[in-house]
Amino acid sequence: MLHNTDMSSPQGGQIGHVSRSIRLQTLVRLRWLAVAGQTLTVLIIWGVLGFPMPIAQAAILIGALAVANLILSAWFPATHRLGPKSALALLCFDLLQMGALLFITGGLGNPFAPLICVPVIIAFASQPLRHSLILLVFALLCTTVLSLSPYVVPWYEGEHLRIHPIMQLGVWFSIASMMVFAAFYAYRVSHEASLLADALVATEMILEREKHLGQLDGLAAAAAHELGTPLATISVVAKEMERELGNDERFKEDVQLLRSQSERCRDILRRLTSLPAEGEEHLRRLPLSSMMEEVIAPHRQFDIDIKLVQKTDGGHEPVGARNAGILYGLGNLIENAVDYAKNQVIISVEYDDQRVAITIEDDGPGYSPVILSRIGEPYMTSRTRERSEHAGGLGLGLFIAKTLLERSGASIRFGNRDNGQVGARIRIEWPRSIMDRPI
Asked: Which of residues 202, 220, 255 is at a domain's end?
């Protein structure tokens, strides 16, 4: 089970560190959008409104961004992905270009000054935290320099739109706080999305492996069928050779060995061929009681007493198609309960014409309020820090189990035992029609 592997964090798990990279073509397209926006803004301010501004310097700065874009597009393929250092260098260039353009057009008095936050947000959404923090510090430094700009904001000729120092200080704090908040928000959203994507990939891998294991018997039977004909031919030829050679001592022993080994191969293939016929009902159709015994059996070898309670008296027992996701998910939840139980785990099964429910209870420490509010998230820490060294905790393994069971149509509720009893309680419930589903 994945539960017994330390996967409480992506760095320590088997999935690997989340790769955070950005495609160069994406950045190039964003830069072309910036070139178009800056060009249009300058043309409107200078050409349409007629506000005086250093048009030559502005054109040089916009042209530098366009030339850099052309060089990148010609030098690298469209599918090229930037490493953290390369992405940091390009975003620093973008920040410097935008900062210089704002500097010569009024600094923090320019109404477009908040756009200096854009490269920082891109970095925190796509790059490692260490490199993003470097860009954040650089952006704050650029914002501070903008507050010292000697240039005035482009305005009507003969009028000077001067910004009071206190107002400039307020604008600086506004941009800085927006930059920090937006960067943190972008990082958290993208990081959680990456973790969720990795966890879902792991879920698909586990389910695919379980399905492959269930197909091995069919593959063995197919192989036995295909090998049966050539092996029968070998056996016939060996008998003919033995008859023709008679009592020839030179080949008698070799021919007898050939016949005996061919007979042995036929016996092995006969057993392989009989596996699907003998176990087909067990493999394809699984009563609820058999499914529970199969899930519980691997955990009975521990010192914890596992008690299976049947709460339904009589009635037609659900019998459905064998589902690898349900088997794995229940097994993982039971393993969690065994890991945290002190003496006993109680598994209750009940069903009627409308539903099938399984309740797993242990006499361990139970769930803390913090864990209950986040339970089922990938890479979450364990119930108690003391137990995390011995058990993998409620991280990726629980997320996979919860995902697989919910995909099977189950609803899952996590909580603690009531009536003064200590321990955790998990209730899994399916509509009866799902558990009685035919092959």
From this structure: 202
Is residue 193 located within the same domain as residue 73?
A: yes
Q: Which of 82-86, 199-203, 266-270, 271-275 has the lowest mean pLDDT?
A: 271-275
My answer on whether 182 and 214 are in the same domain is no
The CATH number assigned to the domain holding 334 equals: 3.30.565.10
The CA-based dihedral angle spanning residues 59, 60, 61, 66, taken in that order and rounded to the nearest 10 degrees: 90
- Over 80: is that where the pLDDT of 410 sits? yes
Task: Answer whether 308's CB lies under 8 Å from 296's CB.
Answer: yes
Pairing state between β 319-321 and 305-310: unpaired
Same domain, 41 and 96: yes
Cα–Cα nearest to 308, from 290, 328, 325? 290
**Category of 53 on φ-ψ map: left (φ > 0), alpha (ψ -120 to 50) or beta:** beta
pLDDT, tens digit (0-9, with 9 covering 90-100), for 152-177: 888 887 777 777 888 888 889 999 99
Supply the pTM of this predicted model: 0.49
Chain centroid, CA 316 distance in Å = 39
Q: What is the extent of the structural domain holding 220?
A: 205-283
Distances (CA, A) of 399 to 175, 287, 378, 382, 405: 39, 26, 5, 12, 10
With a pLDDT cut of 90, the percent of the chain lying above it is 17
